[in-house]
Amino acid sequence: MHGRVKKDVVELPAEEVEKQRQQVRTARKLFGQLLDQRKACIYSQQTFDMTSKALQFHPEFPTLWGYRREILTSGCLDCSDKKVLLQGEMKLLEKALRKTQKVYSIWFHRKWTVERLFEECGNQEKDAQQVLDTELEL
Description:
The chain has helices at 14-39, 45-57, 62-74, 82-99, 104-121, 125-137. With 138 residues, it is mostly helical.
């Protein structure tokens, strides 16, 4: 289309196809568990870690990004420094954006995280500038 050369479809070896099928089975099971836990309003460190793993595998899942926001705002995480937790969130978001840049839910969650980081910076201008600089480098 429009001057682009059509790429030939390459058939994968049987081992690779089976490996992909197994990954999909594992992901579907994990996604199902997370959706059930969200429905039950379960907010814990374990579910937070599970969403991290799931989103690293498939970052195009808006419901899981929303679930992470719910967990982060619930106050149930084992982190005394909220700023460190949000900086970890920024690293996860950067990995997700490197995998796929055109997903609105990732950008929305990043915006939400940056806003929380600014709240945590308070009157510390140096920290706020560092957050801005990091965003501009992306």
